[in-house]
Amino acid sequence: MTAEIIDGKKLAESIKEDIKNTIAVRKAQNLPIPGLATVLVGNNPASKTYVANKIKTTAALGIRSYSYELEENTSQESLEMLISELNDNPEVQGILVQLPLPEHLSEDKVLHSISPKKDVDGIHPYNAGLLSRKYSEPLFYPCTPSGIMRMIESVCPDISGMKAAVVGRSSIVGMPTAMMLSRSNATPTICHSYTKDLDEICRESDILVAAAGSPHLIQGDWIKPGAIVIDVGINHIPDSTKPHGYRLVGDVDFDEAVKRAGAISPVPGGVGPMTIAMLMANTLKAIEYR
Ligand code: NAD
User: Fold this and answer.
1) Rounded alpha-carbon distances, angstroms, from residue 80 to 65, 75, 111, 140, 142
2) Residue 54 falls in the annotated catalytic set
3) Which of 9, 53, 167, 208 for mutating ligand 1's site (highest number of atoms within 8 Å of CB)?
4) Catalytic: 56?
5) pLDDT in tens, 98-109
6) Alpha helix (H) ranges present in the chain?
7) Are residues 92 and 157 both part of a single domain?
8) 0.90 cut: is pTM over it?
9) How far does the centroid of ligand 1 lie from the alpha carbon of residue 213, in Å?
């Protein structure tokens, strides 16, 4: 058996096309169009690339873009002052602070300072709290977990009663993904670096979401035959045949897993493009909270 490939790039393109059309219609009708502010602090090359991609996508969809690039030694006070201004700016509906921040800055304080109504990343504690409450809806669902859910739904629209393993319990990926799986009536097990018998938990799972940041952690024979496998990991491993001397791999041994899974997402071309598409969807949604 060879798994169906869940093409995140293609799925993301169709989501972005819908957003682009909606924005074109809004423009034609003289309705407000959304604006996204990106805040980048310092010179982390990966962060620079991520922000550049987000700005490029914003422009392609007709979303207004406001880009702030701050020095590595920016103080907590001046960063929070900028966020306060953006919170009050009616032209800006979404605020994205690229993480990680330089070590001298408190990410937690920065995230708290963003208005939950402009938290298009969906990671403000207010929105995270609402996500965990049974009868409430967060103002925004977090981008990467939303992308993961859309990918799962694309191959299995009803996951009620299915067993899921989420490997990783971070606040931006693992934990909210488990919440969202539970809200869709699956039964998730949240795994982390202290979890015992990880292989056994994976083998019993109809859905496996790998978000540990550990290359090829999930081996082929850990996959339950027919399972849906979403690989979130982005790992650079040395490869002298590549121009940069490295290549990207996920957390799953794709070549082996593809022989057992029912459906699997690749790296690259899986969750990455979906995260950006969901950020754009959240930015469009933010107009509702103007
Ligand atoms: P993180 O470092 O904050 O969390 C990693 C989690 O994995 C932790 O909970 C840790 O306990 C767990 N873990 C680590 N090693 C493990 C092991 N051997 N066994 C079981 N659990 C283990 O990372 P994160 O921010 O959640 O990101 C996870 C991965 O996803 C990274 O590779 C990151 O680059 C990638 N990522 C991708 C996207 C995307 O859009 N594609 C977005 C966010 C993160």
Assistant:
1) 20, 9, 9, 21, 22
2) yes
3) 167
4) no
5) 999 999 999 999
6) 8-28, 45-61, 76-88, 107-113, 125-131, 143-155, 174-183, 198-203, 254-257, 271-285
7) no
8) yes
9) 4
How many domains does the chain contain in total? 2
- Whether residue 253 lies in the annotated active site: no
Q: Round to the nearest angstrom and report the end-to-end CA distance of the chain.
A: 50
167 Cβ below 6 A of ligand 1: yes
pLDDT at 52: 96
**Cβ-proximal residues to 33 (8 Å cutoff; 6+ apart), any chain:** 23, 26, 27, 62, 63, 64, 287
- Whether 144 lines ligand 1, by a CB cut-off of 6 Å, is yes
Q: What is the pLDDT of residues 151-164, one digit of tens each?
A: 999 999 999 999 99
Extract the tokens encoding 33: 């169009």
CATH code at position 110: 3.40.50.10860
Tell which one of 51, 98, 149, 193 to mutate to probe ligand 1, the residue whose CB is within 8 A of the most ligand atoms.
193
Q: List beta partners, residue 163.
A: 187
Q: Look up the domain containing 69 and give its range.
A: 31-116
